[in-house]
């Protein structure tokens, strides 16, 4: 008996993992063109949701809403099952391309009226010198100055003219202090690059010291100045860390400290005269130029964790225009739903999770969709690039082939940035190719098998997501006598675990149907 059930389990697993790649007979001719995402991912009946769609080729098609009972197309499952929502009449929608512009950076806009002098200084630590990038820039209409690395060399671009700012090559992961004094009326620039002692005496022989250069620059006139870190005037993102940026426009000085307000997306300058906004979520609270190595966490000495780490492939929010804004009906039953777009260029489904309206009758049983785990794996590239527990595969499904062809979709926690640093943040405000029925043998698709199983049992179960538990705590679980987990509820926040524990102590009964669950903290 046991060997029989083991055999069946083996078959199911094999078939699910075959979802990681498509069979040769099944190979679709055309590549995937349509993607999208929605906001929020989890909501209550009666609340508002937005769908953001994009197609690489202009296309017309129909959007409808489907209830997804089972998103598993394999033979071992109960069979793919979705039902269009009768209360939502399909809409004719033309889709064009919405762009993805990854790369974290910081930006502020400063008043300036034809200034005579502009001085910029900051610490920088390059982490990816094999890629050219713009470390900082200032511009206004018709005027631009960029500080950039071209391979291992540091350049300044003043209008159309470029100068080498330091004769010696830069070294990856070493801190440099740059001061650029720009005398616009005299058309003179002084560039000073200081390299303090590091913990590598040998490398210090090649790198330590101060390099000063002076140049004559073309005529450049600024009015309002846009000052950016890790970004150029047009694109030009950069990989590395920056600390203690300062800009002085004539007599007006603006300085930002990155040592406080670690969660802030907008930082006031010291004195509050200007706001620096972070875009696409660079990593805050990372070690800066004065880190002694004696403290091991930012909260112990935040002045030593005063750097910001930028990556050219960070993507927090695709920022597309909503294609549809829609209020869910108050009486919509709790469940897994998808925006389904079917057009000339193909089909795409964007799932979301619906709880009952707050005032509605709740079921005794809820399936807890592990959305934190979905986020951790979002757009993972393990099947493309391989990982320690799975080899790279050929013959990929369209969703994975799409990921292989589009690096601009942002990474998952299972990858590293090209500079070797870990991916700290994952986001749902972008297309997530595996969060689609049948797209991947992990997580979402097998979780819909559990949904189909509970549907088959006719226990009238509700759907709840990790986000609901994180946000609402115990209140999200309290209506239920039984919570059924997903197949891989791996990532939990403290708030989620606290809520679950309290709910269990109050008599709640947990059915843990996953593997490798309750493992990482988010
Ligand atoms: Fe996992």
Q: What are the main properties of this structure?
A:
522 residues; alpha+beta; Jelly Rolls; 8-stranded antiparallel sheet; 9 helices; binds fe (ii) ion
How would you describe the overall organization of this protein?
This protein has 522 residues and is of the alpha+beta class. It folds into 2 domains: 2-99 and 320-521, no CATH class; 105-310, Jelly Rolls. Helix content is 15%, strand content 35%. The protein has 9 helices and 31 strands. The protein has an 8-stranded antiparallel β-sheet, with no helix packed on it. Strands 8, 13, 14, 15, 17, 18, 21 and 22 form an 8-stranded antiparallel β-sheet that branches. Strands 2, 4, 5, 6, 24 and 25 form a 6-stranded mixed β-sheet that branches. A hairpin with a 2-residue loop joins strand 17 (240-249) and strand 18 (252-255). Helix 7 (466-472) packs across helix 9. The model has no long low-confidence stretch (mean pLDDT 94). It binds fe (ii) ion. Fe (ii) ion binds at residues 488, 490, 516.
């Amino acid at each position: 008996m046991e060997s029989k059930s083991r055999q069946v389990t083996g078959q199911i697993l094999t078939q699910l993992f075959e979802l990681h790649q498509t069979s040769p007979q099944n190979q679709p001719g055309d590549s995937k063109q349509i993607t999208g995402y929605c906001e929020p991912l989890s909501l209550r009946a009666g609340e508002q949701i937005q769908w953001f769609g994009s197609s690489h080729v202009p296309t017309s098609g129909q959007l409808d809403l489907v209830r997804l009972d089972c998103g598993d197309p394999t033979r071992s499952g109960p069979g793919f099952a979705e039902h269009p929502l009768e209360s939502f009449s399909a809409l004719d929608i033309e889709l064009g391309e919405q762009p993805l512009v990854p790369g974290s950076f910081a930006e502020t806009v400063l008043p300036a009226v034809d200034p005579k002098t502009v001085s910029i200084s900051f610490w920088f630590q390059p982490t990816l010198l094999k890629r050219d990038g713009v470390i900082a820039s200032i511009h206004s209409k018709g005027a631009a100055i960029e500080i950039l690395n071209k391979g291992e060399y540091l350049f300044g671009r003043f209008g159309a003219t470029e100068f080498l700012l330091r004769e010696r090559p830069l070294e990856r992961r070493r801190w440099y202090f740059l001061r650029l004094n720009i005398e616009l009326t005299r058309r003179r620039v002084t560039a000073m690059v200081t390299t303090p002692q590091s913990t590598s005496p040998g490398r210090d022989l090649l790198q330590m010291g101060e390099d000063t250069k002076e140049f004559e620059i073309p005529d450049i006139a600024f009015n309002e100045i846009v000052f950016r870190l890790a970004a150029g005037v047009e694109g030009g993102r950069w990989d590395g860390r920056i600390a203690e940026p300062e800009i002085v426009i004539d007599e007006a000085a603006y300085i930002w400290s990155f040592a406080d307000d670690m969660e802030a997306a907008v930082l006031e300058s010291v004195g509050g005269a200007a706001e620096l906004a972070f875009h696409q979520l660079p990593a805050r609270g990372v070690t800066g130029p004065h880190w002694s190595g004696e403290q091991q966490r930012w909260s112990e000495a935040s002045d030593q964790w005063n750097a910001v780490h930028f990556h050219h492939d960070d993507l927090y929010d695709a920022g597309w225009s909503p294609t549809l804004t829609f209020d869910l009906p108050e009486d919509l039953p709790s469940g897994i739903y998808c925006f389904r777009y079917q057009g000339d260029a193909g089909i795409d489904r964007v799932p979301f999770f619906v709880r009952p309206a707050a005032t509605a009758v709740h079921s005794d049983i809820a399936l807890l969709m592990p959305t934190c785990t979905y986020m951790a794996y979002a757009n993972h590239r393990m099947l493309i690039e391989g990982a320690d527990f799975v080899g790279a595969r050929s013959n990929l499904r369209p969703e994975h082939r799409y990921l292989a062809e589009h690096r601009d979709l942002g990474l998952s926690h299972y990858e590293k940035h090209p500079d070797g640093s870990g991916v700290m943040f994952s986001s749902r405000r972008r297309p997530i190719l595996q969060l689609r029925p049948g797209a991947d043998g992990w997580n979402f698709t097998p979780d819909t098998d559990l949904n189909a199983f509970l549907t088959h049992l006719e226990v009238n179960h509700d759907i709840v997501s990790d986000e609901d538990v994180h946000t609402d705590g115990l209140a999200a679980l309290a209506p239920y006598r039984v919570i059924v987990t997903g197949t891989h509820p791996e990532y939990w926040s403290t708030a989620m675990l606290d809520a679950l524990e309290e709910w269990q102590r109050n008599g709640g009964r947990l059915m843990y149907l996953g593997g490798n669950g309750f493992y990482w903290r988010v």
